[in-house]
Amino acid sequence: MMAGRTAVFDRGARLLTLALASFAAPALAQAPKMLPYTSIDEPQFVTASKAGFLLDDDIVIGVAAGNVAKAFPAADLAQHGAVMDQMPDGPIEVTWCGMCNTGAVFRAEIDGRPLHFDYDSMVGGNEVHKDRETGSRWQQSTGEAISGPLKGRYLELYSFTRTTWKTWRQRFPDTSVLEPLPGYAERMTAVSQRIKHYTLSGDGPAPKTAFGHDDRLRPRETVAGLTVGREAKAFPFSQLRIARVVNDRVGGLPILVVHQPSSDTTTAFEARAAGKVLSFRAADTDATSLVDLETHSSWNAYGRCLEGPLKGTQLKTLILVPEFWFAWSEFHPQTAVFTADSPQP
Question: Phi/psi of residue 107, each to 5°?
C-alpha cells in the first residue's frame, strides 16, 4: 500500500513541477526543490499572530462555520492538492490545483460516509483525486466522480472564500491558519508569487493536456465560475474589477456578485430578501459597502444588511469556483461569460 501511494506521490510531484515550470517568468523567484506531493490528513493550525509565513496580499482559501474560521494558504495547498479537515458541521476537503489555479472546498462525505482523498491523475489540465474508501476518481474542478463505484455522483461544494490574507484576517481576527509541514514553507514565497502574477496578468497558454479551446477569453484569465441548476456563467476578474457589483440572473435566479478590486475577493448571493428581488450598487470604491435600490438599506460585501429596513438580513450565499478560463470552459462548455459593458437585469 505504501509503495503504491509513494508512486502516486512521485508522479504528482513531477506533474506539479511541470505545472509550476509552465508558470515560469524571469522576474519571479525560483522555488526550492519539490517535496512529496501528498495530501494532508491531520492538519495543524496556528493563530493569526503566528502566521509569519504569510504576506498581506497572499491568497488564501477561507472557510467559516459557527465560531470557527480557518485560512488555508493557496501557496501551501498548491504543494499538496488537498487537505482533509473537520468543521463544526462535518468533514471537508480543501483543494487547489496548481496547474489551473482552481480552488474549491467540498464536503468530504457521501451519504454520511466520510471520504479521504489522494492525488490520482490529471484530466483536461485539472487534478483528479481518488478516495481511499471506494477507489472512485473525482474531478477537482467539478466535484464529479468520473470513474469507480460512485461514478456520476457529486461532492457537495462547501462555502468558502478566495481572498487575501489581510482581508480574511480583518474579517475574522480570531481565525486559525494552516501551518505548513516542515520544508514546505520555504517554497511558499515562490509559489505565491506565481499565483498572484497570473491572477493579475492572465498571461500564458493552456497546457497541452487541456482539451478545450474556447477562445472567448485568454486561457489563463482567472474567472469566478457560478453554476445554478443546468446553467453556468463565468465572471472574469478583469471585468469584475471594472463592474465591482453585478446584478444578474443565472438559471432563472436573481443573483448579486460583489468584487472587491483591492483583494480580488469575490462573493455571490441570491438577490432576494423579504419576498423582494433586490438590485444593488456599490457605496464605496472597493465595494466593501453596498446599497439596495429598493429599500435603500446598507449591506456589506458578504451579504449582510447593516442598516435600514432590512437590517439583520443575510442574503443566501452562492458558491463561486475561481480558476483559469481554460479549466472552467473545459468542464462547462456551454457557459455564458459576463462582460462589464453588457446590460444588467
Answer: -70, 120
Closest alpha carbon to 15 in 183, 220, 209: 209
- Please give the pLDDT value at position 7: 41
**Contact predicate 314/303, CB 8 Å:** yes
Question: From residue 44, how far is each of 25, 41, 72, 86, 331 by CA, in Å?
Answer: 32, 10, 11, 12, 33
Are 122 and 284 a contacting pair, CB within 8 Å? no
Helices marked H in the chain: 2-22, 74-77, 165-171, 185-201, 237-243, 325-331
What are the cell numbers at 230?
Answer: 443546468
What's the CA gap between 290 and 296, in Å, rounded? 9
pLDDT tens digits, one per residue of 92-115: 999 999 999 999 999 999 999 999
Cell of 218: 485568454
Nearest to 150 by CA among 125, 165, 168, 132: 132
Name residues whose C-beta falls within 8 Å of residue 121's C-beta, 6 or more positions apart in sequence.
11, 127, 128, 137
Cβ contact 62:71 at 8 Å: yes
- The CA dihedral of 339, 340, 342, 345, to the nearest 10 degrees, is 110
Identify the CA nearest to 138 among candidates 128, 151, 148.
128
Q: What is the pLDDT of residues 282-326, one digit of tens each?
A: 999 999 999 999 999 999 999 999 999 999 999 999 999 999 999
Q: What is the chain's alpha carbon radius of gyration, rounded to the nearest angstrom? A: 19
| Cβ pair 199, 96 in contact under 8 A | no
Residue with cell 480580488: 264
Residue 134's identity, in one-letter code, is: T
